[in-house]
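It is worth pausing here to work through a concrete case rather than discussing structure prediction in the abstract. The textbook approach is simple: state the sequence, then state the predicted structure, then interpret. We follow exactly that order.
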Amino acid sequence: MDAGPRIAVDAMGGDSGPPAIVAGVARACRRDSSLRFLILGDRKLVEAELGKHRVLERCATIVHTPEAIGPSEKPSQAIRRARTTSMGVAIGAVKDGQADAAVSAGNTGAMMAMSKLALRTMPGIDRPALAALLPTMGEQDCVMLDLGANTECDAQNLVQFAVMGSAYARTVLGVAKPRVKLLNIGTEELKGTDELKEAAGLLREAHFLAFRFDGFTEGDQLSRGNIDVVVTDGFSGNIALKTAEGTARFVTDLLRRAFKSSFRSKAGFALSRPALNLLKVHLDPNNHNGAVFLGLNGLVVKSHGGANPKGVANAIGVAARMVRNDIIRKIGEDLDNFRAHAFSEAAQ
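Step two, the predicted structure:
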């Protein structure tokens, strides 16, 4: 079997460190035996975990990096240690061609800063964006970006996010012409900031791109299943994401408490367990783990800090899928198309 994508994995990031990360790598390897891994971290700690997963003997190589980026470390400090930390070396492996993608559950700000410095942004992209899949009531998830990489965005940033998010949706969701909406405080054209209204105007005129702009959407519609790509600034996007995750936990905990309240409730739980298990699967963030930094000249995937081995494996799966579908080339083609039409219209 031909070797598949080579993934550099930061074993020291996340809440649980090497135990969860290495177990996740093993799980990903069992799912896809063609994958190859560089595992970055303290060799002693990583080897202790590798010994628990024989499957990794044939597909994983340890790169000793005793230093790690702390969860509260400032991006400016992290950049200075890029060559000696597990996260920095993982990203560097992508830059040097030793890996096709990097995965880390570590500090998001540090990860973005080091990724942008090492890989640089693609031509036509001012700022990279963090994109991920959100569960919906529809037949498939939706792509949302930006989820925290950029707290302030102008109209051009939002248009670029729409182009990148659409390419991501075509790759991950298999939608030929994704439905794109801008997150706003209302659906009326007159509502929202000047940046949102300007971006909407530009997107309405972009009929030549491989997506359909459907105007504005409000936060309560994100899970309805009638949107393929939701575009927003990182400040609003991160709040929306955390609110959705908190609501999911609230509903789950409320149901758990309700079913423990009496004997009759416990009997009801036994009868409704299949439906509740389905709900649990749908709301479990580990099943949707893996946010991608789009707009860089290389692939970097952010895993949730609290991800369990299943979540880590899913983040690795996202990285492998992006490599196999050549997402960077597709984004580049869409950006070239957008710039060519914009230049043509400006010349007229």
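Step three, interpretation. The radius of gyration is 21 Å. The chain has two domains: 1-123+295-306, 126-293.
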